[in-house]
Task: inverse folding
């Protein structure tokens, strides 16, 4: 993807990413897009969000190159919002949100939706930071090397 | 962690997680906490955020059980904010934000901070969703199984 024009000179990738997608509705729109939601009215029904907020967040996602607008597959007046390649690349982020939520925000035994591998029906494995040699990395094993 | 009292009945873990941490400043506070920032004044200096916003976000993070308040190690009047176990468990999420930002929000060759394995100095490996058998999963290989 071309770097969005409004991206800052901020050298921290976490900060650049947070300024684009660090927003509750934005994250839920991206989640829904992965689930196949494409139309304004379907996002609105799924999220129960005010139209003006949904319009704003969709526009920002299009400006950021995360969603693209295209005519509806069936033709007609509808337009659809679909994930771009950069948007599809948010799959690990949405999975990280999901897995943290599953681990930390549900009581033992409390039911929640699950992400499964379609081919096998098996739950997706826990996604963990790893060193180059494949060893699981904890936060205290890693350091941010800032620009000189 | 005990499930935060204000957690909704929302069955989607992505939605519960987004409602707690789907906020730019919240994500940057968590990032800084992983980098060892502990004091209000140091968060403020790092983030350049208004005091009232920083106070609000720190309070929410404490209420959510992501940060805990403790007396400063050196004693004195300061209090410090440190990641709880549930907060440390956000490491994959912060890494996912970082790695998406690195891939999508920097021009080729543009410098950015890097997360390295402290012991080896090697950059942390790309973190990818995987099936139970270790195979890399793309979004289109997975399906959300909603509650009946």
Result:
């Amino acid at each position: 993807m071309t770097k969005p024009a409004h991206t800052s000179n901020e050298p921290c990738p976490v900060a650049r990413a947070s300024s684009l997608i660090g927003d509750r509705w934005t994250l839920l729109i991206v989640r829904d897009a992965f689930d196949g939601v494409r139309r304004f009215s379907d996002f609105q029904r799924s999220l129960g969000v005010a139209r003006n907020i949904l319009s704003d967040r969709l526009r920002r996602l299009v400006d950021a190159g995360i969603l693209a607008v295209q005519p509806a597959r069936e033709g007609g007046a509808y337009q659809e919002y679909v994930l771009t390649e950069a948007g599809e690349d948010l799959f690990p982020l949405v999975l990280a949100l999901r897995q943290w939520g599953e681990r930390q925000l549900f009581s033992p035994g409390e039911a929640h939706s699950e992400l499964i591998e379609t081919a096998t029906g098996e739950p997706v494995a826990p996604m963990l930071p790893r060193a180059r040699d494949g060893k699981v990395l904890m936060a205290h094993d890693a350091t941010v090397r800032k620009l000189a």
In short: Chain B touches chain A through 79 residues (CB under 8 Å). Chain B has six helices and four strands. The longest helix of chain B spans residues 91-104.
